[in-house]
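About this split. The held-out portion is used to measure sequence recovery: a designer receives only the structure tokens and must propose an amino acid at every position. Recovery is the fraction of positions where the proposal matches the reference. Here is one held-out target exactly as it appears in the evaluation file.
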């Protein structure tokens, strides 16, 4: 197999130069015109804190937020991936759990399923899931409409 050598062209250099000039301009604007004294020294206390009861360093707000974001991203991606698979059983399980958890962000994806192209069982599960996501049961908290 022949490998083509990549050449740096004049256009590549100009684009890189333009990006560097743009970055320098943004840094200049932030440093000179923003007139704000960034206090980076206080950030570590929001990452980790010393717990006197256990005598250990434990994670604090920013680490908890980061881990929660990563967890949500992972599970959301996994649910969406499984939902798009041809397996009716897995799709039914995921649709059921999406409804039970009140994940209204998946409502459009569930509504996009065509009952004529899915099996009877999956179409029934999706139908019930959509009902749960639009009108929650009495006593059940209304999910966020995000």
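Reference sequence for scoring:
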């Amino acid at each position: 197999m022949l490998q083509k050598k990549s050449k740096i062209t004049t256009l590549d250099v100009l684009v890189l130069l333009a990006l560097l000039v743009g970055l320098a301009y943004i840094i200049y604007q932030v440093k000179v015109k923003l007139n704000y004294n960034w206090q980076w020294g206080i950030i570590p206390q929001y990452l980790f804190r010393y717990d006197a009861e256990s005598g250990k360093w434990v994670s604090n707000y920013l680490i908890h937020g980061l881990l929660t974001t990563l967890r949500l991203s992972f599970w959301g991606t996994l649910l969406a991936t499984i939902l798009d698979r041809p397996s009716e059983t897995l799709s039914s399980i995921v649709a059921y759990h999406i409804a039970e958890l009140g994940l209204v962000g998946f409502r459009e994806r569930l509504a996009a399923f065509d009952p004529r192209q899915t099996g009877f069982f999956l179409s029934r599960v999706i139908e019930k899931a959509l009902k749960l996501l639009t009108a929650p049961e009495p006593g059940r908290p209304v999910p966020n409409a995000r």
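Annotator remark: Helices lie at 10-33, 44-47, 61-83, 88-101, 107-111, 120-134.
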